[in-house]
């Protein structure tokens, strides 16, 4: 015999959003998008599914292992369900809006689906909302999107915000200035692994395979992570040259511009961090809030379609919602069948939720309480339902 309860089960990492959570998420989402629109970011809405060769090209290649695939019965071509919306925005900018004036400012929101969840985010389906600034390759653009995201989060009432900056190109720039890696080609992989583990001792030990001056600089960069001013000072003391020095100057300018716009925003720098930013080509950033588990969002500079410069961010709604205080429940009033349409409309205009009686139950107050109403419309006004009235 079939157990009908199994029909209600969902796969790991998937869940239903019920009342009032679904409405709460929608309201926060609209507030964020309205904030982006007020800063000139026009909303676009790409499809949930695209042809695989389009979805997974360019910066989308990094999401290949996280992408669900299926066959399109019409074209007989493979399609993918998006695991990240940024590659789609890149495609729209390069193809549909190639003739639009730059800088191009776009915003978006939608569901994404991933093959696997992570330890910090076990959900496989969740909502992304974000914005992309396409065209200019300057520190002012990096600072604009950081300020836009931080301001929008603060406007939701999220306190104790911080942003952690990174520059994935900094480590390769330091190594490019040094002597060539000797011997085993796996040495670079060993170094990257040691850096990802934040293991300064292991980095120093690799000095026998690399230039010792280089591993010394990298080990010092590991310990330099922290508040922006202290990290920048530590990087200055390392005497970086060439592209590495340019990267240091870029970080300093982004910090200066961001701080000028949002002096209360806590800014940290991790000059070594690379994980999660594999396709980024410049300054990256991750947003956190004190007491909130997980990242509120992340972003950074990358090469969009046809190699065009771009920078942007994605906010993760599941984490954002944990940081936002839900609004108090709205008042719900039960309307007996005799209530006029005009009275019902007036109540809704006054921010009431109205629940209309469909048939006479003989005890309107009991029915109102059963349906979760806080009030009942009687004698021309909404009267609160008390426990004594429902006994």
Mean pLDDT: 90
Please describe the biggest sheet, giving its number of strands, its sense, and whether it closes into a barrel: 9 strands, mixed
Taken in chain order, the helices and strands follow as HEEHEEHEEHEHHHHEHHEEEEHEHEHEEH
Q: How many E strands?
A: 16
- Can you tell me the CATH architecture of the largest domain? 2-Layer Sandwich
- Major beta sheet, strand line-up: 1-5-6-12-11-10-7-9-8
What is the general shape? elongated
Rounded Rg: 27 Å
User: Low-confidence stretches at least 5 residues in length (pLDDT < 50)?
Assistant: none
Distance from N terminus to C terminus (CA atoms, Å) equals 42 Å
The CATH class designation of the largest domain is: Alpha Beta
Could you tell me the CATH topology label of the largest domain: BirA Bifunctional Protein, domain 2
> Multimeric state of these chains?
single chain
Measured as a percent range, the helix fraction is 25-40%
Question: How many DSSP H or I helices?
Answer: 14
Strand content: 15-25%
Please describe what this structure looks like.
The chain has 391 residues and is of the alpha+beta class. The chain has 3 domains: 16-159 and 273-328, Bira Bifunctional Protein, Domain 2 (BirA Bifunctional Protein, domain 2, 2-Layer Sandwich); 169-268, no CATH class; 333-390, no CATH class. Helix content is 37%, strand content 22%. The strands form 3 sheets. Strands 1-5-6-12-11-10-7-9-8 form a 9-stranded mixed beta sheet, sandwiched between helices. Strands 14-13-15-16 form a 4-stranded mixed beta sheet, with helices on both faces. A hairpin with a 6-residue loop joins strand 3 and strand 4.
């Amino acid at each position: 015999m079939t157990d009908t309860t199994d029909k209600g089960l969902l796969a790991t990492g998937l869940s239903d959003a019920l009342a009032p959570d679904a409405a709460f998420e929608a309201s926060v989402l609209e507030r964020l998008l309205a904030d982006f629109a007020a800063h000139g970011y026009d909303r676009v809405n790409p499809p949930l599914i695209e042809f695989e060769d389009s979805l997974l090209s360019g910066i989308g290649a990094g999401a290949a292992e996280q992408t669900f695939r299926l066959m399109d019965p019409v074209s007989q071509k493979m399609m993918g369900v998006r695991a990240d919306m940024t590659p789609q925005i890149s495609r729209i900018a390069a193809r549909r809006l190639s003739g639009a004036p730059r800088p191009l400012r776009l915003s978006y929101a939608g569901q994404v689906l991933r093959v696997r969840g992570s330890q910090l985010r076990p959900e496989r389906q969740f909502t992304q909302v974000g914005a992309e600034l396409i065209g200019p390759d300057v520190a002012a653009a990096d600072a604009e999107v950081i300020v836009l995201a931080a301001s929008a989060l603060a406007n939701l009432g999220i306190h104790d915000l911080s942003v952690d900056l990174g520059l994935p190109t900094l480590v390769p720039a330091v190594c490019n200035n040094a002597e060539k890696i000797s011997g085993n080609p796996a040495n670079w992989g060993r170094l990257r692994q040691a850096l990802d583990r934040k293991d300064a001792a292991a980095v120093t030990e690799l000095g026998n395979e690399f230039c010792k001056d280089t591993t010394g600089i990298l080990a010092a960069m590991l310990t330099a992570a922290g508040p922006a001013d202290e990290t920048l000072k530590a990087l200055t003391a390392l005497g970086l040259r060439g592209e590495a020095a340019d990267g240091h100057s870029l970080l300093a300018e982004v910090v200066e511009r961001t701080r000028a716009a949002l002096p209360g925003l806590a800014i940290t720098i991790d000059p070594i961090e690379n994980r999660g930013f594999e396709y980024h080509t410049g300054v990256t950033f991750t947003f956190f809030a004190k007491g909130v588990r997980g990242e509120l969002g992340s972003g950074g500079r990358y090469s969009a379609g046809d190699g065009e410069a771009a920078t942007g961010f994605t906010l993760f709604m599941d984490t954002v919602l944990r940081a936002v205080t839900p609004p108090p429940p709205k008042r719900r009033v039960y309307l007996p069948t005799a209530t006029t349409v005009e009275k019902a409309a007036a109540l809704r205009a006054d921010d009431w939720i109205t629940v209309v009686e469909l048939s006479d139950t003989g005890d309107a107050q009991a029915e109102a309480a059963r349906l979760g109403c806080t009030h009942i419309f009687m004698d021309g006004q909404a009267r609160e339902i008390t426990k004594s009235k429902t006994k």
